[in-house]
Amino acid sequence: MSRQEPLSTPQLLELGPKVFTPNYRQLPVIFTRGEGCHVWDSTGRRYLDLVGGIAVNVLGHAHPMIVEVVNRQVRDLIHVSNLYYNEPAIRLASELQRLSGFGGRVFFANCGATANEAAIKLARRYFRTVVRRDRFEFITMEHSFHGRTLAMTAATGQPKYQMGYEPLPAGFVYAPFNDLQAISAKISSRTAAVLLEPIQGEGGVVPAKEGFLRGLRELCDSHGILLILDEVQTGIGRTGSFFAYEQEGIKPDIVTIAKGLGGGLPIGAMIAAPKVAEGFEPGAHATTFGGNPLVCAVALAVLEAIEVEGLLDNSRMIGEYLLDGLTVMRDDPKLEGVVRDVRGRGLMVGLELDGVDCRQIMTQCLHRGLLVSVAGTNVIRFVPPLIVGKGHIQAALAVLYEVLIDVVKERSQRK
Ligand SMILES: Cc1ncc(COP(=O)(O)O)c(C=O)c1O
Fold first, then answer.
1. Can you identify the CATH homologous superfamily of domain 9-62+310-414?
2. Class of 77-308 per CATH?
3. Which of 23, 141, 145 has most ligand 1 atoms within 8 Å of CB, for mutation?
């Protein structure tokens, strides 16, 4: 096989499983192109994309602003390293500082897990070098998800992600989500911070209850410990505000973002309150690619488009529309016993099913030209581009309804 030789779809599908480590379960489809909320596979078939690269492609595919900025920035400068400053990184950090609402200082990482790693490292150093008290333990939530590095595997409160990787880094204890009393009971003289997602994503799209984050903020303040929010999935307008915490009227000490920030290019960021950021001195932490001018220029375009195109409003409005449509499905007598719950905020929505193989639903939707993903074990998750419209949602709901009706038929045949 020469490097230039074109490969047919069957050849690629045969080669794929032989060349990658077998830690993914790819569906047998090869995507070659995207535009707006649609992607096309190698056979030319079109799909409606309500996965958006798992909450990444906030502007959809091939957004003109991203195309233009990538072209320009690639010609100007792709990479220089953090030995020097570059303009897109300074501008982006300045924008994020403003958006954070607490004058946060920014560290650029490469993904969600490395943004969270930075948060954990900073929190420990803050207590050791600024507060001068040895607080090093983190309280994280059961059913949480914080990424796949070894420390984030330990932070993630789900044994299924931890199995086989022991010994895990020490210093993480778990408490039930949405349970202030249980969290309070875990706080000790060792505790440095509480780390959590405002809406648990991979855990099955489970939002924090009204008042929970405010209560947690007070709890952390009363113990002199930090509140770290992982907004890797909920950030960048996903829930209808730039950060989900804005809707709770609180500010964290550290917030992490990634996914949607680069509109498809890999970037993560940790934003820390100025006092906390003093825990890092030169050399304390670093990464080669962090703050690369190319990804930062694209992220700036993403922030600009979110504002100019009114995507926070769209996220709220279309999110409601999607929730309403799914709620109608939940209450449809023809689907009795299939849908258990509908929940979410903005364009982060989950449909919890009852006794249904969600992977099968995902595959059936794919066969009908619709991309959806699964969160937890039994939740169909919708995290589409923030540019999604009512027409897309109507089309998706029609496909999903057909697929769920098939589940009902199959069930009655089995009886
Ligand atoms: C809340 C949350 N934190 C962290 C991560 C890890 O991000 P990444 O896969 O970019 O490392 C994810 C990914 O799904 C996430 O949803």
1. Aspartate Aminotransferase, domain 1 (3.90.1150.10)
2. alpha beta
3. 145
